[in-house]
Each structure stands twice: as C-alpha cells, then as structure tokens.
Amino acid sequence: SVEEMENRVREIKEKFGERLFLPCHHYQKDEVVQFADATGDSLRLAQLAAKNDKAEYIVFCGVHFMAETADMLTRGDQMVILPDMRAGCSMADMADMEQTERAWKVLQETFGDTVLPVTYINSTAAIKAFCGRNGGATVTSSNAKKMIEWALSQKERLLFLPDQHLGRNTCVDLGIPLEQMAVWDPIHDKFEYDGDLENVKVILWKGHCSVHESFTVENVEEIRRTKPDMNILVHPECSHEVVKESDYNGSTSYIIETIKKAPAGSKWAIGTEMNLVKRIIAEHPDKEIMSLNPNMCPCMTMNRIDLPHLLWALETIEQKEQFNQITVDQEIAKDALLALDKMLKIV
Ligand code: 13P
Ligand code: SF4
C-alpha cells in the first residue's frame, strides 16, 4: 500500500541519515516531494550538488541532465542515482553532438572565430563539454540574462543551445532586436533567416520544451477577455509570443516566490508544468490561481519518478545492488565542468 511504501522510504532515509541526500526539482510529484531534503530550480539544485560533500548517495528526483550535472559537480566518489533511467528531457535530447559539430563547422565558416557557444543546463553532458571546450558556459532560466550578457562581452556572437525560446526571450530582454537572431535548424542543417547573416548576433538552436510550447497566445487572450484582472506569470521556456503578452516570467523558483509575495485575493494564471502549478494552488488558498492552459499535460518524463520508483532506488542502496547510477565519462566531465564552473562563478 501507499502507506507501507511511505513508511519504508522514511525508514531507509532515517537509517542512512546524512549519508543520503534527496534533492527534488519543483516539477516532481507531491508523493516524491514530501521526502525531499531540498527542492529547487535547476540552478539551486546544481549549487546544492556542488557544495554537498557529506552524502555518499544522492538520489536525484528530477531528470537525467540534472543527475548528470549533480554527478559532475560532486566531483568525488559520491554516487548519483536516478530512480528511473527513462526520466530524460525531450528538450535536452534535441541537441546531439553530431548535429552540433555539423552546425559548428558551418558557423565557423560563416562567422569565423566570432561565436561563443552557450548551453541551457537542459542539455547532455556532451553538449556542456562542447561549450566548455570552446570557452562557453552553461546557463539556467534564473541566470540566463546575466550569462548571455557575459557571453556577449566575450565574443561578438552567441550560439544558444538547445532552447530557442529561452534564448530568444532573454536576448529580447537584453534589448537585442529579433532581426539580429537567426535560428539554426539541426534536422536540415540550415539557418532559418531572411536577411544578411552578417547582421546576426545570436544563433538560436531550434529546440523547445513541448510542455511549455503547449501554452499559446490564444490561452493568454482567453484569460485577458474573461478575467481581465488576472496576472499572467509564465516560464521563459514558453514561446516569445506568449512571454511578450504575459505580465511576468521567470524560473520555477521565481514563479514560486512571486506567488508567495503576492497579496491575498490576487489572481494568477501560471504557465508552467502542472505538478508545480497544482502545488502552488494548494499552498495558496487565499489567492485565485489557475493554469494558463487548463488542458495541459504534465512533463511525462519528470512524472516517471514516482513513489514506487523512489522506494526501489532507496532499496537498491540498502541492499547495495543494481544501482541506477549516473556516471559521466571523465573526459566529458572535465570539459563540461569548465562550462558549469564558469556559470557558478558568475552567479
Ligand atoms: P527551472 O526549474 O530551472 O526554472 O527549469 C525548468 C525546467 O524545465 C527544468 O527542466
Ligand atoms: Fe525538459 Fe520541458 Fe520536462 Fe523541463 S518541462 S524536463 S524542459 S521536457
């Protein structure tokens, strides 16, 4: 039963104490989050991994790229375990190394040595390593502005992988005109750009998050029409059209903090993953809160981590067998850490 599983999770956690650390991303289900030693957005989860040197086992409740990041940042012999290996991120999978090398070759031919590659943390360790090797860095949704500003102080141009929306939204925020942004289509190996490439400052990789792409301008217009006093708050993985029409945008932690600070009685439509929106609704009965798209789906891969998988992962630690361990290849980790450390130093 659920109760038995919950008791077992508690029992194993108690038994291991500080030797076991259980970080959770905000998109995890309540049945998992209730056992979190810490919750956070991608930046905080990375920072926590970087400073944790006590835990022998880190049971990472989030998706694969986050567990890879934790493995690299813990550096020593701490073991990072992902309760379900199928918990990937479809956006991170939209940039692979072969595509990136083909793109890089064209970018070098077109722009010479004027491009700095920067990757959203939602990417594979190999892509982070590619950025690290070429002088670039990682960014998260909560520091993208600062990091892109830094990138453009280093080189004339920026290649932003793999989320075109976070890249576009942040660059618009920084005052870069849309006309100076080209899209690189990695499936067809070509630019999507009408003008003269000479004028391009930012090359956006054509990747996206399907969860956040499901919020549309029609959703925003519907709220504006039916509930004009509602504030619209979205994640910057939403399309630029949606972000432009909303009132506020930011990382999952920013979304949580914004609602916490909002006055009682205020009204909010939130455009981000459903597990988080549901939790925010439950925690703020004094505010009127809804999803920006009532028909949206949860992030299916985040949802793969559930109570049975969490318990299973903890039992493998207890029995010292068949761990779902995430280990990044040493060579890749060395270069990826150049990119991660650059970010952690700047923010
Ligand atoms: P943040 O929690 O860093 O805002 O990221 C959201 C996300 O989609 C993680 O996959
Ligand atoms: Fe990836 Fe989108 Fe899920 Fe975040 S919400 S883990 S970006 S698929």
TrEMBL record:
Signal peptide: none annotated. SUPFAM superfamilies: NadA-like. Belongs to the quinolinate synthase family. Type 3 subfamily. The keyword Cytoplasm applies. [4Fe-4S] cluster binds at residues 89, 209, 299. It is found in: Cytoplasm. Its EC number is 2.5.1.72. It catalyses: iminosuccinate + dihydroxyacetone phosphate = quinolinate + phosphate + 2 H2O + H(+). Iminosuccinate binds at residues 25, 42, 120-122, 141, 235-237, 252. This is Quinolinate synthase. Pathway: Cofactor biosynthesis; NAD(+) biosynthesis; quinolinate from iminoaspartate: step 1/1. One of its GO terms (molecular function) is metal ion binding. Its cofactor is [4Fe-4S] cluster. Pfam families: NadA. Catalyzes the condensation of iminoaspartate with dihydroxyacetone phosphate to form quinolinate. It comes from the Bacteria. One of its GO terms (cellular component) is cytosol. GO terms for biological process: 'de novo' NAD+ biosynthetic process from L-aspartate. It is an enzyme of class 2 (transferase).
